[in-house]
Amino acid sequence: MIDYSPLWRTMKARGMTTYTLIYRHNINPRTIHNLKHSKGITTATLEQLCSALRCTPNDIVRFVPDSDDLHNM
User: What is this structure's pTM?
Assistant: First the structure.
């Protein structure tokens, strides 16, 4: 499962709002919706977010294995 909780912490630490991402960095409002609902984003969007926040992908997203994935290892 993809978890975007690092994004919200990074945004808070940098004083960045979703409004700023949308209107200053041209992040589509639909993308913000997808992020809030843990839906997928493109790598191009991930790059755009990294650029806007001056961070790395690890500051935006983390992978949390499902319990089924753990049992299959």
Answer: 0.84
